[in-house]
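It is worth pausing here to work through a concrete case rather than discussing structure prediction in the abstract. The textbook approach is simple: state the sequence, then state the predicted structure, then interpret. We follow exactly that order.
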Amino acid sequence: MPDNPTTALVKAANSPALARVSNQLALTNKLLTKPEEPLLIPFYDQNWLWGYFDKKKNVVIEPKYNSYAHIFRGRFANVSMEENNVKDSGIINFDGSIVVKLKYQKVQYTDGIFIAQNHTFTQNGWASFSGNHGFLNEYGNEITHMNFDTISQFCENLSCVSINNRYGFLKKRYELRHSIRI
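Step two, the predicted structure:
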């Protein structure tokens, strides 16, 4: 029996069986390890540009992001470039390919989709945050209009959204349900 208390062996009576056990697979008496996602660590170079290296400190994604590079959460990491005091955020994957273009003020990955916030500025240069949130799919494509004032993360397939002080719930299938006013 392995030392890890969350791992157990599975054996079926007189027939080979495959069962998921913790983060490993069990086939009768043999444990097969589940392929792990690469561990990529953000770092910055002497020019203050951010990139990623693996656990052996081999550079995997060249330093090119001048604002920040977050740690990977699942398959994605949030990165940002700054120009003229405006930070553009986006999402990359393990090979450094851009999944969500670096054009949003904020982007976060949650429960299989991205929540994005657009940059919006008034005529006098002040930021306005009304009507600039929306959802993107895992390919970075907008799946709702970017017209929500607020968006919450999904919880039990529902997200609380608001437009012009009217609140409602958006189902994971992106259908607005139960519009309420508070």
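Step three, interpretation. Residues 24 and 115 are 31 Å apart (CA to CA). The chain has three domains: 1-36, 37-104, 111-182.
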